[in-house]
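pinning this so it doesn't scroll away 📌
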Amino acid sequence: MGNDGGSIQRRCEVVKLKKKKQKPEREEQNRSKWTLCALSKQKLAPPIVACKLGYLYNKMALLEALLDGTLPPEFSHIKKAKRDVIDLSLQSLNDDAEDAKFVCPVTGLALGGNYRFVAVKKCGCVIAERAWKEIPDQNVCLNCSTPFDPESDILILNGTEEEVNQLKEKLKKKQSSRKRKSSSKKPAKKIQKTGVSSSANTLGPLIASAEVSKNMPKSADPSIYKSLFTSSVADATEGETFCCRHVGHRLG
């Protein structure tokens, strides 16, 4: 029983504390991001690509989903493979494609959730973020020396929730600007005019005397036949059509 002089109870035996809910280990969650395809949840194997949000995919699984139209809504930011994904160049420790272990080519750090990595969009090289911090102000890839823009060509892979949200906002702005550019490039629709053109108002060569005499019936009077297509009012071309004489002539 305790408290009778024979034994002393501890606090945990007297006071019942609420059991803490067991949460998945952070290392396991991060490891799955670096070892499994974000779309198919299959083990990552070359060729591997990354979307503009920094998620990793098996390229074949992503292409099949795009072709079949079965891409889930959470991956709707991927419209075209050539434009919206980046082919990654990962250095592997072994030659086994099914059980490949990737490392940073500069520092030798392994991909697995313990370290942060970035990808260079121009060349696809995946390098540990620690390497960029040790050698700041770089405008060439530390692995292949490809020149790039530090402001726009560095993609954080499997970033934090805040970093992913920032990338989503950038994508929305790019998509809206792309839509505006495409709409401005579209040619304006031509509106058909219902009125009679000036060329139609003027009889032109059709009413020339040579043409009139050519098409005139043999039994017709030349002066009467010609008056059907010409005006008796001098210089009265406006308001006339092919089969309409001048108003002033009809009223006269």
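📌 and the second one:
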Amino acid sequence: LELGSGRPLVESVQELRAVSKDVRHGDGTQHAAASRLARMGGRRGYTQTLTEPTAWNQAPVVVTTLPNGVRVASKETFGEVASVGVYVNAGTRDATKESAGAAYLIEQLAQTGTAKRPKGKLEAEVESMGATLSVSAGREQTSYSMSVLKGDVKQGVDILSDLVTKPGLGQLAKEKEAILRSLEEKEMPTRQVMDDRLHACAWRDCSLSNSTVGPFEGIEAVSEAHLQAYMAANYTAENMVVVASGPVKHEELVK
């Protein structure tokens, strides 16, 4: 906060303390106190830095549960770009000993395309929209998200639903060697590795100890059948939330 004269509020507080001191010293300094108050009285206005005007009238988050159990949540805001995503309540902790690394493999295979959108077509479609696509598998959640222009929200949701419901699991045999080699050669931030190892120590007797950065013990033996079983158990309607933020109408998103 600043006073109308541009003087910081802290200076005014100091002046008020000086006035109080003058008054406490008795009648001899009352004239000085009056003079200080007169000078301050000429600076009654103040300015205040506020958030942008639209922040005063934000739309609420609206949530709808579809008949199949999928939840749809949206928050309409001003702008030209919208963020849409599908979040699945499943991650590395949901893998069994036999399917260790399944979440990571599904994350990588999602970027190789689907039956409807092979890799080349998927990349070209996203690029032509001027959009960005991100898939990330964590310890407890997996996210599929896109940033798109407001006129491409419907197409973005279609792409995400295709990736979530029909990932390229059939590409495992073809892509597995390259995925494992990339995992082995990938340089992970030291802090991220340390956090992952500390988590494993803290939860060593629980599935929460499953690594998110690798290496994944036994991942070489994970088959397409393992991935299908993992998805059947975890990629269920009640575990999914479709989310959108930006210039998006909730009614249109639900449709």
